[in-house]
Design goal:
231 residues, alpha+beta, 9-stranded mixed beta sheet, two-stranded antiparallel ribbon, elongated
Length: 231
Amino acid sequence: MLTEEDYKSGQVLLIAKPLQWTSFQVVNKLRWEIRQAFNIKKIKVGHAGTLDPLASGLLVICTGKMTKQIDTFQGQTKEYTGTITLGGSTPSFDLETEINETFPTHHITPELIHETTAPFIGEIDQFPPIFSAIKKEGKRLYEYARAGETVEVKSRKVTIEAFEITAINGNAIDFRVVCSKGTYIRSLANDFGKALQSGGHLSALRRTKIGDFKVDNALSIDDFIAQLPKE
């Protein structure tokens, strides 16, 4: 069992984030639980890469002196699995917002789906979603989006190391992606739909790896709390 000094000197915790939780909420919860367990007023806790509330999977949480390594972990390659649903697009590129455009899908074959992954592999220019936390002139992009304001979003260079189709169930396309820091899988889903001469949005997402860290080795929030010392 880890001690108060262990957490202060620095730990890397692998946590499986559940759906609907923000990454910030997970950090706050763990910080509070560690403080309660050891009756301490302050301890540094941070995460190495945000996951959207509608995504589940691996969060790398650093405590104490290991928070200085957060930038290193954030820069590592990430792996995701998920589902792109074809035939409709949303303003947020996922299910945070409702479908606002529908498109034909009758022309899309399994062969075309597999072939269309190729142009996305390698270094690509990607536009982040307008519903994102990127700042522009002091405000988050999603603040402009929710206010109905239009702003120019600049593209970024990201690297997709692997984009593999793992299952096709009608318009639901399961995938595995290995990518660089800064890649938006929501944008990939939207762009993939366009490349198929249709539309698409991200309907499920799970982060499975960050560098050498795997979600298979992660604890649920409840399991982490259960192994803390009790008064």
